[in-house]
Design a protein that fits this description.
CATH topology of the largest domain: Quinone Oxidoreductase, Chain A, domain 1
Cofactor: Zn(2+)
Distance between the termini: 30 Å
Strand content: 15-25%
Protein name: alcohol dehydrogenase (NADP(+))
Radius of gyration: 20 Å
CATH architecture of the largest domain: Alpha-Beta Complex
Order of helices and strands: EEEHEEEHEEEHHEHEHEHEHEHEHEHE
GO molecular function: alcohol dehydrogenase (NADP+) activity; zinc ion binding
EC number: 1.1.1.2
Helix content: 10-25%
Family: Belongs to the zinc-containing alcohol dehydrogenase family.
CATH class of the largest domain: Alpha Beta
């Protein structure tokens, strides 16, 4: 059910407590400039001046109600990089001027087994998403397509000095979404890892898997991006539009990470795994998928899913990327090009992540 909320004001000069933002006023409506309320800085809050916000494919899914009814007006954006402008009196982790980031969630119950284990992304009661959600007070959350955001320090990340803020922003979703399954399924030396799709998620998966020491193969529909894939760290690149690929690579991989948001013929891809191999989905198709369970049973294979990472693991990912010089490949845009960027993402016309310069909002 769509939550009933007060529409953001459309005045250019934001009222007290409001900040400039870009919002979708209704499902599938073009995003437009507006203002949205931000809560006062509380005891453990940090106020962040947003410098850059990445555009994730999931922003499009949600702004267009692809995953179910959303909360409108909606300000997308969960790849946020900026600078601390103010801290609450109880804040101990950050100071004014610190470089920080915010990812896909801004709170959780903090008491369930998952939260206590540092797996806030799997909070039993449901974490609070950075946008298109209701916070613990029942107010809608608004995301990073805005000039400022207020976030609890416990869900704020430190961006290492070795990463520029613009290329770091997409790491808060694309980076952790791919790092987490690669780490969990032990990608590294001696492991053969395939990445399905070379897009916003896939290009970071290639970089990270390569830095972990795995032998990396890209599986893409065509060879159009082969040169990019090899430059980013892939050892091999195959076209899945060629049936011979599935014959040639049968039983080849320990781990396959699918980053695409379209349904896959899972039985074919499972055939590419070794015994005890795993196919992990981080892309989220809107449509149901089908599967013959014998594709799993006969070689004890695993079909799994993975959703971002916990706060500690996200910080680990940022530190890893800084240590290895891994930032996203970006196209920096002004906010007036957000709607154009959405259409280009759907047409696979970006290499590899759009990032909004928040100064243009």
């Amino acid at each position: 059910m769509t939550a009933q909320t007060t529409s953001p004001t459309t005045t250019r000069n934001a009222p007290a407590g409001h900040v400039p933002a870009y919002a979708a006023p209704a499902a599938s409506a073009p995003l437009e400039r507006t203002t949205v309320p931000r809560r006062p800085v509380g005891e453990h809050d940090v106020l962040i001046d947003i410098k850059y916000a990445g555009i994730c494919h999931s922003d499009i899914h949600q702004a267009r109600d692809g995953w179910g009814e959303g909360i409108f007006p909606m300000v997308p954006g969960h790849e946020i990089a900026g600078v601390v402008a103010e801290v609450g009196p109880g804040v101990t982790k950050f100071r004014v001027g610190d470089r920080v980031g915010v990812g896909c969630m801004v709170d959780s119950c903090r008491t369930c087994d998952a939260c206590r284990a540092g797996l806030e992304q799997y909070c039993v009661k449901g974490n609070v998403q950075t946008y298109n959600a209701l916070d613990k007070s029942g107010e809608p959350t608004y995301g990073g397509y805005s000039r400022q955001i207020v976030v609890d320090e416990a869900f704020t990340l430190r961006i290492p000095d070795g990463l520029s803020l613009d290329v770091a922003a997409p790491l808060l979703c694309a980076g952790i979404t791919t790092y987490s399954p690669l780490a969990h399924w032990n990608a590294g030396p001696g492991k053969k890892v395939a990445i399905v799709g070379l897009g916003g998620l896939g290009h970071m998966a290639v970089k990270i898997a390569h830095a972990m020491g795995a032998e990396v193969t890209v599986l893409s529909q065509t060879l159009r991006k082969k040169d990019d894939g090899l430059r980013l760290g892939a050892d091999h690149y195959y076209a899945t539009g060629d049936d011979a690929t599935f014959e040639q690579l049968a039983g080849a991989f320990d781990l396959i990470v699918s980053t695409v948001s379209a349904p896959l013929p899972f039985d074919r891809y499972l055939g590419l795994l070794k015994t005890d191999g795993a196919l992990v989905n981080v892309g989220a198709p809107e449509e149901p998928v089908s599967l013959n369970v014998f594709s799993l049973m006969l070689q004890r294979k695993t079909l799994a899913g993975s959703a971002i990472g916990g706060i500690a693991e996200t910080q680990e990912m940022l530190d890893f990327c800084a240590a290895h010089g891994l930032g996203a490949e970006i196209e920096l845009i002004g906010a007036d090009r957000i709607n154009e960027a959405y259409e280009r993402i759907l047409a696979s016309d970006v290499r590899y992540r759009f990032v909004i310069d928040a100064a243009t909002i």
